[in-house]
Amino acid sequence: MDIRHSTNPADAKHYDTARLRQQYLIEKLFQADEIKMVYAHDDRLIIGGALPVNAALTIEAADVLKTDYFLERREIGFIHVGGGEAAIEADGERYALGKLDTLYVGKGTRSLKLSSVNPSDPAKIYFTSALAHTTYPTRKVSVQEANTLNLGSLESSNERTIHQIIHENGVQSCQLMLGVTLFKPGSVWNTMPAHLHDRRMEAYLYFDMNADARVFHFMGEPNETRHIVIANEQAVISPSWSIHSGAGTSSYAFVWAMAGENYTFKDMDVVEMDALK
Question: Its Gene Ontology molecular function terms (predicted)?
């Protein structure tokens, strides 16, 4: 478990490129037969990835959690982002996930095992986990069942489809929210105009990019923006005080996940374009 402590915006504005990447970028989430996890002290979100090839992988409580099992005081959302079909067992109940299918598992589930149906085409399973105060039922959702929004335009380079999956009007959770945004060919801008939500942090996983493609992820206070160059299947932590926006060298997709105080997708403060510096 990699630990990332929270940062103050007054300090972050002085970070150089190396420090920005060390603090906010998660570079290697999918390693064969391993589970990678990052514990972000921003709203205590855990961000993880698994690439099961030769055997099932078990998510266990790291020492930092001080619990007997991973979901003793947590909930978790899994989404399949690449490769062949995935299989997830939650307390012995098996769920098959195709690409962009999501599985929510509630507080109190003791056993979590991740595997690939076909080892020659292993699944890439991304997950985020937030603190939970009660138990909501485990539920699988296909991307076709998500609440879908079609936004933007090709003229503004941001024609995109947003699939809201774990949220107030979808799969119920304590505080975790999760969805995926897919861009149409020729569109590269996400979340512009930018916004803030001081009551929630957010994490992005950028994926479905060619090896030589990059996303320039913009962060920081609106009047002190910075950027991080991100490659395929890398994630980034966005503190509650930071904008979170990006532009790619080509179309891409990203999973967004949020945790914090408020539980509504619309809880945001839009930043006017003339306020960005």
Answer: 4-deoxy-L-threo-5-hexosulose-uronate ketol-isomerase activity
